[in-house]
Design goal:
Elements lengths: L10 H24 L3 H15 L4 E6 L7 E5 L12 H18 L3 E4 L7 H7 L3 E9 L2 E10 L6 H71 L4 H26 L9 E3 L1 H15 L4 E7 L6 E3 L1 H18 L4 E12 L13 E10 L6 H4 L19 H11 L3 E6 L5 E8 L3 H5 L6 E6 L3 H11 L4 E6 L2 H9 L6 E5 L7 H10 L6 E5 L4 H4 L9 E4 L4 H11 L1
Parallel strand pairs: 7-9, 13-14, 13-15, 15-16, 16-17
Antiparallel strand pairs: 1-2, 1-5, 3-4, 4-5, 6-8, 9-10, 10-12, 11-12
Length: 555
């Protein structure tokens, strides 16, 4: 695709172009630090990229979700006035071209020759040649930069510099998203302690309410059976039951308070993430900074959010850049660490296990001991006012802690500063072993609230729960050859009571333990339950600790 690229013959021209290009990179990097608008960044990059290539126009297409195509253009000669008339055609062509760009991760040149991949776009843009460059973030295509020429060809220098501009655009978008993320994280972190306190209080209250409600529902069930079937009585009982149901719903709300839905996590490849980071800072940081890297092979995976982790590492690198005043060395080291009994004393804050250990070290002037103690405090900054929010390290600390990791800093005045990030390795084989011995409990009760409570109790401690509403459904489940390890069945259910159901289960030669439950206090005295196949009796309202001990005893 790049067979039309020319090489520059004049070395003086190459030198001048390189110097000018480096100046443009510095200008763009300065803009990226301050600017919060993707539109402005796109316009500035397009102007420089088009002029650098002596092009006719430039366009950046982005946002391909739901087939919606957004674009920013630089068109000094009004060559693209009609571009809105060809949205469908452009979208269709870019859909194919973007697949090529995503697979090859490199730019291509399209001509107006027949059967060329860019022939249709050249016709629409009224150009003879276009340079199409992918904007990649974490190896994913999120935007496309297109530069068109009326005459002439694109040189190798044009291709290389435009690729750099595309990387800068990716860096700029990532930086803006990071700033937005900082604001969100700041709010969440400032509320974390309050939510934790309120959450613990409300959860404790909800636990007590659940115990009370269990007794209330059991008592209502008894009243329905013992009271005469008269409207003046049944109306009162129904009213109690309806109020109890509303209280149950309120209790669920209390249990969920202070526990927002966790952010989506994914498997992160640290080697790939660090590779992307190093590419960005190597091409955008001042040339006076020497980036030294030592990334071990076969780093274990990490479970977390790649955007947040990238933000942490980028923030550490930017801080290191500012600490050395754009001249010196920044070392990025990554290796695997196993914390065991022999070396636990070297890492007292870490639990035993495998970690990814990432170090960012600069050759700056260091931080004195007094300021080092405040380094992760919110709004603390050694920079001048208005130079930064002081939230970078504070937010980074929160992100790492959320991943159950640690971030540590060591430094001395007039010496280098080192940040060490320890991230737990993702090891799915260890967690899967716990599921092998999982037991299945068949729970039969016609009261939905009690079934949900028991399920919420049993599933977190390793039991799978199958819930049914009647004795007939119990028999149907067993006849369908569903293997269960234990049955908890309520005595009073529609169609078939629990004791009769137990007799039928034993006739089918099932040997699993069967626990019969009821809200009646005289339950044990009035029924000959042992002879009918019941293993144990459980009286409502349930005491969950007693129930768990009983289950462990029987299975």
């Amino acid at each position: 695709m790049l067979n039309n690229v020319d090489s520059l013959e004049n070395e003086n021209d190459i030198l001048k172009q390189n110097i000018h290009f480096q100046e443009e990179l510095q200008n763009i990097l300065t803009l990226l630090v301050k600017e919060n608008s993707i539109q402005v960044i796109a316009e500035e990059i397009l102007i420089r990229a088009v002029k650098n290539c002596d092009g006719l126009f430039g366009v950046i297409y982005h946002n391909y979700e739901d087939n919606k195509l957004s674009f920013t253009k630089y068109d000094p000669n009004n060559n693209l006035e009609h571009i809105n008339d060809f949205k469908k055609e452009i979208n269709a062509n870019l859909s194919f071209i973007n697949k090529w760009l995503a697979n090859h991760s490199k730019p291509l040149i399209g001509t107006n020759k027949q059967n060329n991949i860019g022939n249709t776009l050249n016709s629409i843009f009224q150009s003879s040649t276009i340079l199409i460059t992918p904007c990649l973030s974490n190896d994913k295509l999120f935007a496309t930069l297109i530069i068109g020429k009326k005459k002439g060809k694109f040189s190798k220098f044009d291709v290389a510099t435009t690729t750099q501009f595309a990387s800068l655009f990716a860096f700029g978008v990532s930086s803006i998203n990071t700033k937005k993320l900082n604001i969100t994280l700041e709010k969440k972190l400032l509320q974390a302690q309050k939510l934790e306190t309120i959450g613990k209080l409300s959860s404790g209250m909800a636990h007590d309410f659940n115990n009370l409600l269990s007794g209330i529902f059991g008592s209502v069930d008894l009243l329905k059976k013992r009271l005469p079937n008269e409207p003046k009585f049944t109306k009162l009982v129904d009213n109690i039951e309806q109020c109890s149901i509303r209280a149950r719903d309120l209790t669920k709300g209390l249990l969920s308070y202070g526990k927002p839905t966790a952010k989506r996590k994914e498997i992160i490849k640290p080697t790939s993430l660090l590779g992307d980071l190093i590419k960005v800072i190597s091409s955008t940081f001042p040339k006076g900074i020497d980036i030294i890297t030592n990334i071990a092979e076969n780093l274990p995976d990490v479970l977390g959010n790649s955007v947040e982790l990238y933000q942490v590492l980028l923030n550490l690198c930017v801080n290191a850049k500012e600490a050395i005043d754009n001249k010196g060395t920044i070392s990025i080291i990554a290796k695997k660490l196993n914390v065991g009994r022999k070396n636990r004393h070297n890492h007292p804050l870490l639990n035993m296990g495998n970690y990814v250990w990432i170090t960012v070290k600069d050759s700056g002037q260091g931080i004195d001991e007094e300021n080092l103690l405040k380094i992760f405090d919110p709004y603390y900054s050694t920079k001048e006012k208005d130079a930064g929010s002081g939230l970078g390290l504070y937010v980074s600390y929160g992100i790492v802690k959320a991943l159950k990791g640690e971030i540590l800093v060591s430094s001395k005045k007039d010496m280098s500063t080192t940040f060490d990030v320890f991230l737990p390795a993702y090891e799915p084989t260890k967690t899967n072993k716990k599921i092998v011995s999982e037991k299945i409990i068949l729970l039969a009760d016609d009261e939905p609230m009690l079934k949900e409570l028991l399920s919420d109790l049993l599933e977190p401690v390793g039991y799978s729960v199958i819930m049914v509403d009647s004795g007939l459904e119990v028999l149907r489940v067993l006849k369908e050859e569903m293997v269960v390890d234990m049955i908890i069945i309520d005595y009073s259910m529609p169609d078939m009571d629990g004791l009769t159901c137990t007799e039928e289960i034993r006739k089918l030669n099932f040997k699993m333990p069967i626990v019969l439950s009821s809200g009646s206090l005289a339950f044990e005295e009035n029924l000959n339950w042992k002879k009918k196949g019941v293993t144990k009796i459980l009286t409502k309202p349930y005491e969950f600790n007693v129930m768990l001990n009983l289950i462990e005893e029987l299975i």
